Amino acid sequence: MKRKVLVAVFLVSAVILLGSVSKAGAILIGGDKWSHDFDDTAFVDEIIDKEVNGFYWEGGSDAGLLNGDVGDGGVALLDDDYISFIFTDNTVFNGAGADLAVFEAGLPAEDLIVSVSPFDDNTGWTTTLKYDSTYTGAEAAGGYNLNVALIDLSDFGFAEGDSISAVKIFGITSVYKCCGRGGKGGMGGGSKTVKDPSYKKKCCKSIGGTDLVAIGSLNTEVPVPEPGTLLLIGTGLVGLGLMNRKLKG
Ligand SMILES: [Ca+2]
Ligand SMILES: [Ca+2]
Ligand SMILES: [Ca+2]
Prior knowledge:
The protein is of the alpha+beta class. The chain has 2 domains: 1-22 and 224-249; 26-221, Jelly Rolls, CATH 2.60.120. The chain has 2 helices and 18 strands. The strands form 4 sheets. Strands 4, 5, 8, 11, 12, 15, 16 and 17 form an 8-stranded antiparallel beta sheet that branches. It has a 5-stranded antiparallel beta sheet with strand order 3-6-14-9-10, with no helix packed on it. Strands 13-7-18 form a 3-stranded antiparallel beta sheet, with no helix packed on it. α1 packs antiparallel against α2 (227-248). The chain is elongated, with a radius of gyration of 24 Å. One calcium ion binds at residues 41, 43, 45, 87, 89-90.
C-alpha cells in the first residue's frame, strides 16, 4: 500500500515537472493575413504603472489586457498615455525575427511606441521605438479590425538569446476633434484622422489613439525547475522510501 502511495507521489511530481516546461501553443490569434498560435503563458501578466487619459472601449479593462482574448475590448491610449506590463510566468527571448506581438484595433491600423526592459521592477527601460501595426484579417471586439505590431528585440540592441520581463506601450493620438471655423467638428467638420501632434496646438482635443488589445510573446520561455529543486524532490522521495522500509521492517 505504502509503495503505491510512493509511486503516486513520484508520478504527480513528474507530471508537475513536465507541465512547467511545456510550451505547446494553445491560443490562436489573427486571421488570413497574420496569425500565431500562442502558448497560454505567453501574455503579459501584470500592470505595474500606467497613465491613461484615453478610454476603455467595448468592455475593455486592465484585466482584459492581460489575457489572450482579443474579443473583450481594449483601451485607447492618447499622446503621453502609457501602460507598463510585466511578465511573471514567462519571459520573452530574442529569437529569429519578431519576438513580441502587440495587438491594436480599428481602421486605420495605428502606430504605437514601445519600450522594453529585462527587469520587472519598473527600471531598465530602453529608449522608445515607434512601430506600425497592420491588419491581421481577424476582428477585435465591436467588429473592429484586429491589427498587430511585431516587435523584434534586436531593434533595441538585445543579443540573440537575451530576454526581457517588461514592456511599456505608449499611445499616439490619431483622431482630433477641433474647435474654430468648423464648429465642434472642426477642421472642415467632423473628426479627422491625422498623425500630426501639432493639431494639439490648434485648439484640437485628442479623442482617439492607439487601441491596445493584447500583448503576447512569440518566443516564450517558462521557468524550468532548478537542478537544486529536482535534487530536493529526489532526496525527499528516497527519504520516503527509507521511512517506508523502516516502518515495514
Ligand atoms: Ca504570461
Ligand atoms: Ca483581452
Ligand atoms: Ca528577434
